Amino acid sequence: MSGLSREEAISALRWLVESGADEAIGEVPINRLLAPAPQQRSITPAPEKAAPIPPPPVVSFGAESAERIAAFCHSLSELKAAVMAFEGCELKRQATNTVFADGNPAGGIMFIGEAPGVEEDRQGLPFVGRAGQLLDRMLASIGLDRQKVYITNIVNWRPPGNREPSLEEASICLPFLHRHIELANPKILVLLGAVPARHLMGAQGIMRARGRWEIYRLHSSGREIPTMLTLHPAYLLRQPSAKRLAWNDFLAIAEKISSLGVAT
Length: 264
What we know:
The protein has 11 helices and 6 strands.
């Protein structure tokens, strides 16, 4: 504003402020590739450094969606159709089939495993591979078969490489599983392995938790279901010496079936 009188300069400055100007700049262009002179100071103070934004919690929109969808299912057939149509879990994009359940939901005994494997993904049924064949023999040892029990998993789609489902993947599928248990309304639950024991009962370490009865409470009614935590058949294939522990657990299951009068 060189060449202006004091009054003209003040008038021009007032016009700039009223026009929305909020920063003063110099009359000489600045080469910002050069380091500023030691004495140079900015007319406008630098804004304070923003606090780092914390990462979002591990809660998926898929889980929220699954919870709303599951609440509207009033039969196992409706729930199966909802799970088959659900697109909120990334696992489904790489899976061949949705694996819902197998067996007899009216049998009163519900087994819950971890996730489908290669053969389960191919056939669309739980526990039909090598681990499933061992489970069939374990059931037969206490007078049970797939016409007398009901079988499902924590997640309904195979994780790539048969890895354990992640926390987010499990959280997305859990609303469907909670509703699944409510609609099947079993008298006894059996959790096969560390994954269902952790996600349904909060157990940390299956070897410490197995072999004793816990209580699962239905979300809708609060009804208590006796729940046995035991070893997954796939683990027994890798560690045959642990079969004696699983045998003891299955003897306890047979005793509970008898004491509750569950028809087999």
